TrEMBL record, chain A:
<dbReference type="InterPro" id="IPR013325">
    <property type="entry name" value="RNA_pol_sigma_r2"/>
</dbReference>
<dbReference type="InterPro" id="IPR013324">
    <property type="entry name" value="RNA_pol_sigma_r3/r4-like"/>
</dbReference>
<protein>
    <submittedName>
        <fullName>SigE family RNA polymerase sigma factor</fullName>
    </submittedName>
</protein>
<dbReference type="InterPro" id="IPR014284">
    <property type="entry name" value="RNA_pol_sigma-70_dom"/>
</dbReference>
<feature type="domain" description="RNA polymerase sigma-70 region 2">
    <location>
        <begin position="13"/>
        <end position="78"/>
    </location>
</feature>
<keyword id="KW-0805">Transcription regulation</keyword>
<dbReference type="InterPro" id="IPR007627">
    <property type="entry name" value="RNA_pol_sigma70_r2"/>
</dbReference>
<comment type="similarity">
    <text>Belongs to the sigma-70 factor family. ECF subfamily.</text>
</comment>
<keyword id="KW-0731">Sigma factor</keyword>
TrEMBL record, chain B:
<feature type="compositionally biased region" description="Pro residues">
    <location>
        <begin position="91"/>
        <end position="109"/>
    </location>
</feature>
<feature type="compositionally biased region" description="Low complexity">
    <location>
        <begin position="110"/>
        <end position="121"/>
    </location>
</feature>
<feature type="transmembrane region" description="Helical">
    <location>
        <begin position="40"/>
        <end position="64"/>
    </location>
</feature>
<feature type="compositionally biased region" description="Low complexity">
    <location>
        <begin position="73"/>
        <end position="90"/>
    </location>
</feature>
<keyword id="KW-1133">Transmembrane helix</keyword>
<feature type="region of interest" description="Disordered">
    <location>
        <begin position="61"/>
        <end position="134"/>
    </location>
</feature>
<protein>
    <submittedName>
        <fullName>Uncharacterized protein</fullName>
    </submittedName>
</protein>
<keyword id="KW-0472">Membrane</keyword>
<keyword id="KW-0812">Transmembrane</keyword>
Amino acid sequence: MGREFDDEFAEFVTQSSPALLRVAFLLTSDRGEAEDLLQTALLNTSRHWGRLNDRAAAYAYVRRVLVTTHTSWRRRRRVHEVLLDQLPEHSVGESTSIDVGRALQALEQLPPRMRAVVVLRCYEGLTEAETADVLGCSLGSVKSQASRGLARLRDLLDQPSATSLATEGAR
Amino acid sequence: MNDQDLRTALHRDAELVGAPSPDLLDQLVQRRQHQRRQRAGIVSAVAAVVVIAAGIPVGSSLLARSDGGPAGPTTVEVTPSVTPEVTPTPAVTPAPTPEATPTPTPQATPTPTSTAASRTNPPSPYWARTASAR
């Protein structure tokens, strides 16, 4: 296999891929999809790696690519996704073997944009201005999406069981 | 539930994904090579379409040019040479049949009668006249 990436990029991937994979997992709620999303974002970044002057900002750059790629995927897959009445007996990948927590389950109920705002604000600890910069939207939009998303999450997490979560999400 | 509880729950659930696969870089290399092959295929397909699209008008103009140039004199040379050759052959073939049939029959039948008549009739008065005159 030829030498595709330089050492600096390979080192960056080794160091920051665990944290980026966690962000991707919070965005997708699926390990396989999270790995796919991370690989896509890293590939996009590798194409522009030589033009990245500030290597310290590489993590923020990949995180931004993660969020925008996920948003575009959700837009495309919403059209092509086929819902089945019966689930397959044997699932593919490790995603079903992971016991998804309640916060993640509640996060799944949010629309993708609101979910990205909540993840960036609450998990990554970005300010509202930084979140608006990552998402490419206005500060007011981030504020409204964050407040509505957090209120929705609190409602969902305050409910007692998972069945009530699902019914609330269906509404 | 306050914001701190929510942050803690999100961090705890994010840990559920575990560590990334150890061969992440190898997977990236494979995907990049696959993307390169895809791009090369797309570029070659687009180039083929461009060449075909450019070749159609060029080829048609070449065909049109070849139709107007050398094809003119050859048709002009061929058409007159064929038409005189065709016209004499039917003129020759019917000519012997009507000439051959009538010529021997009138010439053959009158010659013995005419020669016999000419030999018998004219000398006799001529010689008779000259002999009688002398």
